Amino acid sequence: MSEKIDIYLNGDRLQVAVGIDLQQLQQQFAADQQVAIALNTEIMPRRCWPERVLQARDQVLIFNLVAGG
Amino acid sequence: MATKLTTSAKLITSANHSSPAALQSPLPDQQFLYYSRQLLLPDWSEQRQLQLQQKKVLIVGMGGLGCPAATYLAGAGVGWLLLADGDKVELSNLPRQTLFRVSDIGLNKAEAAAATLQQLNPFIRIDALSQMLDEAELVRRIAWADLVLDCSDNLATKLAINRICQQQQRCWLGASASGYQGYSWLINPASGGCLECLGHQQPLLPGGCLQQGVYTPLVGQLGLQLASMALQQLANGRRRRSFVQIYQHHQQQFSQCQLLADPQCKCCGVTADV
Ligand SMILES: [Zn+2]
């Protein structure tokens, strides 16, 4: 069984595999959606997602990009 | 008998037009009275009120975001509001576009909003632009304004404002909402980060309020955030780092996150200097 860490995704505690990065997390939880991701209150540019490996207790916010008003 | 001015007595004195303090006021009596509750705030003053009267704000879009934002900026006393919208008022707008009434249906939104706001505050100037602003017009109007609020409902306008403000190095505010999703932002080109860094450069899935609906109180909250952020920005010109306030419906809260610059962004693409 692969090792897991606890993170917080949109306020909920969640177990994910050690070594998972932001891009993999997005594909796992928000595939086919146009989203932005904040990691520990910083919004990460999309091209940084594959480089950002999650650490235990990281707080991640995935939110949909919208254009209405 | 020793006299000690209580807080309530101070309030009465400062709002009383027959008092010597009021007679020496640089604000005309009616305006002093109009803004009296705001003037009582510890960090507000007649000087600040007069400075606000010198400010010009462009609001692009007079829908669910623009109506509350413009209402509170007018009430606060921003001296010159320029409202831009090419759409007409429809019945389905009334639940959240609070400046309009049934009698406004069919009227241009910018013009109808300007008329209502002028009744709300007769001491400021309010102009309406009743057409969609093309690129050249946006360039001109953004250069004119002290601050720009993007309250539009489409990606093309948002990206155009983003690009022009980047070119002109202008700090600007905006918001987006659809369904239960929404966020507001302050973008300061000097600190890096822009709407394209956030991810808005890609075509968004078909959506918007027309397809997804919109949670009525959310656009109101975002519009009020914009008004408050604008007043802070206009008052002290504080050069804040770019940030986004993201609405989380289940928690009924907003999370403020710093917007990091993408060094390879086609729009901003430079490192921060703030
Ligand atoms: Zn950018």
From TrEMBL, chain A:
Q: Name one Pfam family in it.
A: ThiS
InterPro entries reported in the protein's UniProt record: Beta-grasp_dom_sf, Mopterin_synth/thiamin_S_b, Thi_S, ThiS/MoaD-like
Q: Which PANTHER family match?
A: SULFUR CARRIER PROTEIN THIS (PTHR34472)
Which NCBIfam families did the record assign?
A: thiS
Q: What is this protein called?
A: Sulfur carrier protein ThiS
Q: Which gene encodes it?
A: thiS
